[in-house]
Design brief:
The protein is α+β, with helices and mostly antiparallel strands. It is about 40% helix and about 20% strand. Strand 6 and strand 7 form a beta hairpin.
Length: about 240
Amino acid sequence: MKNLSFGEKLIDTRRVKGLTQEEVAEKCNIAVRTIQRIESGVVKPRASTIKIISEQLGFDFFELSKTNTDSRNQSDSNNLKVHSPLWYLTDLFNLKTKAMKKLTILSTSIGLILFLISSVVQGQEQTTKNNTSLNIEYKKDKTLKRVEVNFASGQLTLDSLVRIKEKLNTAGVTINYQKIQFNIVGLLEDLECQVITNDGFSGSFSTESVSKLVEKNIKFGFYRDYSSKVASPFGTGQFD
């Protein structure tokens, strides 16, 4: 068994990566003639030159030189040092080599990230707009105009239900949860409860599949409309 010389290792690595001597010289900012002389064994490169070439081609000759190879025909891909993700990220921003290819990758990646962020933000805004859980409206004289609770928002947790109950109490509405079940991620799925308003309206409602109502964008819960001319001042279950 024998150790590969740096020139031999350079030849093998360059061929594995499909690079010409000119491309290696460009990546390392070294004269082509120097690469040729190193590979032919005419010159023995300095440690600094070995370090530059090793880093650019993705292997550590100083580390590899400590271990003998069983055969020159062994696959060199097993001997190449695997760099950390940070190394490849840093190399991506090194525009001295393959600038156009790297700029394309960077611009595509940034565009994709911005698109995903925008989609998430818009989705959250749309969900908040269409699936408000609790709505308490007041008239100009500070008296109640409408109280509405939509339990099919798809976002309700145990803490959410407690907060809804507390806020309804401040509006003179009492709600009693008689059955509550949550899915595996802790969101409301089954509900049975009773509601009593401060002016005598009361009713009970229940559902065993909040998630299906959310998918169909159906409101489920109750409302009390205090407007004098409204046709239906109180409702429970599914409503518009």
